[in-house]
Every structure is written in C-alpha cells, then in structure tokens.
Amino acid sequence: MQHAPNDLRLTSLGDGDGILITPRAANTPVTALHEAGLDELLADAGHLLIRGFAPSVEDFNALVQTYSSRTTLDPARVFHGDAAQKVDSGTDAIGLHVENGATPYAPDLLWFHCVKAASSGSQTTVCDGYRVWDALSERAKELFAGQPISYTRTVPAELWRRLAAFLAGDGRSPGEATVADLYAQANPGSKVEFTELADGSLHYSFQVFAAHPTKWSTRTAWANSLLGPSYNYESPQIRFADGSAIPEDITAEYAEVTERLTEEILWQDGDIVLIDNSRVMHGRRSITDTNRTILNSQSYARK
Length: 303
Prior knowledge:
Blueprint: E1 8-12, E2 19-23, H1 38-45, E3 47-50, H2 57-66, E4 68-72, E5 79-80, E6 84-86, E7 94-97, E8 109-116, E9 124-128, H3 129-135, H4 138-146, E10 149-155, H5 157-168, H6 179-185, E11 191-196, E12 202-208, E13 211-214, E14 217-222, E15 237-240, H7 248-261, E16 263-265, E17 272-276, E18 280-284, E19 293-301
Parallel strand pairs: 2-3
Antiparallel strand pairs: 1-2, 3-17, 4-19, 5-6, 6-19, 7-18, 8-17, 8-19, 9-16, 9-18, 10-12, 10-15, 11-12, 13-14
C-alpha cells in the first residue's frame, strides 16, 4: 500500500486491494483530498472508499473536477451541479457491470457520493476484474480472449441526442446533435456502428473484449457489462462478435466466480467511492429503504 499524506490515513478495505481513506484529524478539510494523489492510489487499489470528510454536493463536484479532464453523463439521469447525477435505477438488485460498458463511452473513473445512506439494503457491490480473471477456468479464458463481445440495442431519440450534444460540448441543443457527433466522441479505438431509424431512434452494435488491460496496467481484468442492468434502456442483445452465444456453462461459471469475489460497501452519510472503471465492476443489492440519496459522476482521468 502506498504511503499516505500526513493528514490522511490509509487502511485495507475488504479482501482485495481496495483502500479506505479517512482523515487523521476531525477537522481535516475535504480539500486535502485534492492533493492526495487519489488517481495514483486508485491505480494500485482499484477502488477507494473515502470516509469522514462530510463533503457537500459542491465539494463532491469540485473533487471530481480536480481529477478529471472531462466528465460524461447518463442521458436518463438528472444533474446535481456540474458533474454529479442522482442515481435512479429502481429498487431491484443490479448486476455487476462496468459503467457504460455496453457502449463506446465507458469512462475511466466512476464516482459515488452518499448524501444520505439507507437504513437497510442498497449496498453497492464491487468486484475486482483482476481477481475474477485469475479465478476463471482456462476454457473461459480462451473463449473471452479469442474474440470480443457484441452488444446491440436501440436507444430512443431524446436520449442519444442528449448524450451527443453533451459530449460535443459546443453549445448545440440535443435537437441539433447528429450521429456524426456520436462517432466523433466515442472512446479511441471503439468498434461501433450506429444506424438512425425512421422514428429517430438509434440502433447500435458495439464490440469490446470482456477481458482486457486496464487504464493503468497491462494486466488483464475481466471487466464488462455481461451481468449489467438496463433500467432506463432496452436490454441489449449480448453475443460473441461472430454471432455465437456464450455457452451456458461459461455464463454459470462467471456468475458464480464474480458473486464469490464480490464485496459490499456499507454506505454512511458523506461517503465517497472512487472506482477504476476499466478494472472494477460494480452493482447494487436490493433497496429496502428508499429514503436514500446517492449521486454519481463519470469522468476521464487527467493522465
């Protein structure tokens, strides 16, 4: 574990590489995190739980901006400030996934801020893709290393246009955004095909490897959205790129392995969680107390 700045304390979090960051003194300002090298800590840990700083929503937005070259969004969510959106995904459990992993717009960094914690349920789940890849069978590794996964779905016009306008960032309204903007703003190297339909909706096919190097390492992580949610969207069709189905026994294997290696974040008011979205998948247990507020932000690292 890396050495902590003098005003912060680093301790192990769970059974993996995660790190809990707390202040050494009760009056440590949240701005101390701006100089704490959170990006460097994240490269080693995969995910960070920051607790004990009592940040405001404005503080959270400022922290995100400090470590981000730019932010992105979920077009189906509402903004709270410049970077944060409210998480609104129903009350059912959510499977492990990479944020926006079924699209060519997966961010480097995924942030959560617990404004108000639930009294029960709704734990955020995390699963380190390094550990999953190491635990999978050789047959599974050969299949997922052999070819990418294909995600296909159709997105309503109002959602894809809102995303395109935000990503373009040139002041145009969603009604002025085009499919060309989506191609232009896709993550470098993305293999994606968009088709605008007669009703204005957008059909797309996106290919990406389920296991791959991470943002900060050449080590392979099994980090994808094969188990992920589609609360605000049509469920994607998921197959191998050659059109073949993922074998049922392999699906059962990665479901068992990921659940066995999943850890839970038990939220407290004011907590911030930072996740390496290229390595660590996340999800959620069922919500049993709806009187909670969790904000989310998606961004790209400065380096």
